[in-house]
């Protein structure tokens, strides 16, 4: 097999660099399945990987990319054969193992998911880890027994990858969605996704110190953490459910136990990387079938490997809207 392009992060944690280089298959990590990647995506964790963030990257050199979709070219596993269309997300892909910003990846067979009917590589990467996480959040709300007539569901970070797909998915399932964003110019786009109401970040920011706030939300998908998450939990209705999957607004959670012991609020933590295989397959089947949603073209960007450095700066500055796909094919 000839050499192939990949985005490589080199240097050290204080001064990392990134550039497209040529690799041979021998350079890839050990694994059972070799996949020719057609599409990957850009996520905030990938951007951190380009900065050699110690919570994401253990050593350099490193290939970022927590998402990949393509076709098997070689398999030592009886579960997959050459030509099979597959998805790889989570586990260690891109963090800490080498990831999908490479024309070829080699991974353990248990990381691989057969492409569900109804998806192809590009559509699967429009979802990627972001859509997979959003669907897990919605599944937590659904499992908690919160029906659409229970009241409003708030989504923070609504223009981001997780948030935008969560808005579209909740709206598809009949919930009244309140989208929170710091980008007022994206209000119409959020309404097009299905948001019934678009509000600014101040709607989920309360520093009064009150242990409980007036009940407002039946449920929530929080992608930012910190003070907004604490505000939402304090304003969640009796027996409501808050699905939490991010920390861009902070990792501290200034709360008392009152929302949990007086209102019975559930705070459901969502982890995507280590999601067990059974639930993982179920979520992908839902996204390919009854939960399939389409983002408008304005919220799906594409780029090649060479364009990634500029795109990384954009996502680190908080300016990305929707999803950014990385074209490898």
From TrEMBL:
A GO molecular function held by the record: acryloyl-CoA reductase (NADPH) activity
Task: Give the keywords, sorted.
Answer: Oxidoreductase
Q: Which is an annotated Pfam family here? A: ADH_zinc_N
InterPro entries (UniProt xref):
Acrylyl-CoA_reductase_AcuI, ADH-like_C, ADH-like_N, ER, GroES-like_sf, NAD(P)-bd_dom_sf, Zn-ADH-like_protein
What SUPFAM superfamilies has UniProt attached to this entry? GroES-like, NAD(P)-binding Rossmann-fold domains
* Occurrences of domain Enoyl reductase (ER) (ranges): 11-326
Q: SMART domains, from UniProt?
A: PKS_ER
Q: What is its EC number?
A: 1.3.1.84
Name recorded for this polypeptide: Putative acrylyl-CoA reductase AcuI
**Which organism does this sequence originate in?**
Pirellulimonas nuda
Q: Source organism lineage?
A: Bacteria, Pseudomonadati, Planctomycetota, Planctomycetia, Pirellulales
What is the name of the gene encoding this protein?
Answer: acuI
């Amino acid at each position: 097999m000839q050499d192939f392009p990949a985005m490589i992060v080199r240097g050290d944690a204080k001064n990392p660099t990134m550039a497209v280089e040529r690799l041979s298959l021998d350079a890839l990590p050990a694994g059972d399945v070799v996949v020719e990647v057609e599409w990957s995506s850009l996520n905030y964790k990938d951007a951190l990987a380009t900065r050699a963030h110690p919570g994401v990257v253990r050593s350099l050199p490193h290939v970022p990319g927590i998402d990949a979709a393509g076709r098997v070219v070689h398999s030592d596993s009886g579960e997959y054969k050459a030509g099979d269309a597959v998805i790889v997300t989570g586990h260690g892909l891109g963090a800490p193992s080498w990831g999908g910003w490479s024309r070829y990846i080699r991974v353990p067979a248990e990381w691989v998911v057969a492409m569900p009917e109804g998806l192809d590589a590009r559509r699967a990467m429009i979802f990627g880890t972001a859509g997979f996480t959003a669907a897990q959040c919605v599944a937590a709300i659904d499992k908690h027994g919160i029906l659409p007539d229970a009241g409003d569901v708030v989504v923070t970070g609504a223009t981001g990858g997780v948030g935008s797909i969560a808005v579209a998915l909740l709206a598809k399932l009949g919930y009244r969605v309140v989208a929170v964003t710091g980008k007022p110019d994206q209000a119409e786009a959020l309404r097009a996704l299905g948001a019934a109401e678009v509000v600014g970040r101040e709607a989920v920011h309360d520093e009064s110190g009150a242990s409980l706030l007036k009940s407002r939300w039946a449920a929530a998908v929080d992608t930012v953490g910190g003070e907004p998450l604490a505000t939402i939990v304090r304003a969640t209705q009796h027996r409501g459910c808050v699905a939490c999957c991010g920390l861009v607004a902070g990792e501290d959670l200034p709360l008392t136990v009152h929302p949990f012991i007086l209102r019975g609020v559930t705070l459901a933590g969502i982890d995507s990387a280590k999601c067990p295989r059974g639930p993982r397959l179920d979520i992908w089947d839902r996204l390919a079938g009854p939960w399939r949603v389409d983002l408008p073209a304005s919220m799906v960007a594409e780029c090649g490997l060479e364009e990634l450095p500029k795109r990384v700066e954009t996502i680190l500055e908080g300016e990305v809207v929707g999803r950014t796909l990385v074209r490898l094919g």
